[in-house]
Amino acid sequence: MSTDFKLNLGAGYMRKLGNDVIYIDHGDLDIDANGNIKIIPEDDIVTQVAQKIHIRCYLKRGELFFNLDAGFPYIQISKYKNSKTIFDNYMEEYLLETEGVASMTSYSSTLDNFTRQISVQFSATTLSGETAEGEVNI
Hints:
Layout: E1 5-17, E2 20-31, E3 37-39, H1 45-58, H2 74-78, H3 84-96, E4 101-112, E5 117-126, E6 131-137
Antiparallel strand pairs: 1-2, 2-3, 4-5, 5-6
């Protein structure tokens, strides 16, 4: 059996394809019989990088029992008044640390104080020189 377990994280993102912007539904993990975790699809590096950025955005510091330092420090940053600038500085640096990201082409975020949600828009250049774009609502 080539696959023992598959998980759909239920996320999606927008990707520019030529002059069109299309929605790509992604978020699958494939755990094989040897315990190796792969991001699906394996052959699309741009989708993999965008997916890794999505996953990293949703991971809060302290959530992983085996590595409490992994994840973004949402709670620590929220303690500061006018913390959007601090958030943006930390988040952009955090996204640059994502595996497969060579540089950030653009970054912006929008804070909705009423719903207490933040939307992060990004465009990152992959190590292969392609552009991964997306938006994450946190």
